[in-house]
Amino acid sequence: MSFGTKASDSAITACLVGLATVPSVTRGIKRILVPTDFSEYSDMALRLAIDLAGPQGAKINLLHVLRSGDSNGQLQMMRKQIARFPDSKDIEIIPEIRQGKVYEEILNAEAEDNADLIIMSRHRESDSLLSLFRSITAKVRKNARSTVLVVGA
Fold this sequence. Notes:
This protein has six helices and five strands. The protein is of the alpha/beta class.
């Protein structure tokens, strides 16, 4: 991995092999939703989305949800995150910022964008936010209409 994650190439390959049995993958993926919190685990999710989007010709919706506050600087952070993956230049990646409850906005984006697959991390860097983000991931997995692939530790 060129972006310094702890994941090994074999772990990513195992995820890709496992995805071959997911119905949305076998019928083709057109849209992938990747929620981001700008962590290294979100980078892992984006890396996997890029690897899947290329051969499928899929678009990626890179989503950041603010619970409150101003979005100044967030779009720039998303552009920097995308720039860490130079092989993504041939893939359409659409950055989007929403405000609200994180899991609700992820599910809203899934429905509005007709996402075939959600690839998200389950861990934030801060231990104080670990249980919060795990509950977000659990709510998305429980309520999503599409396949949800969770990466990270």
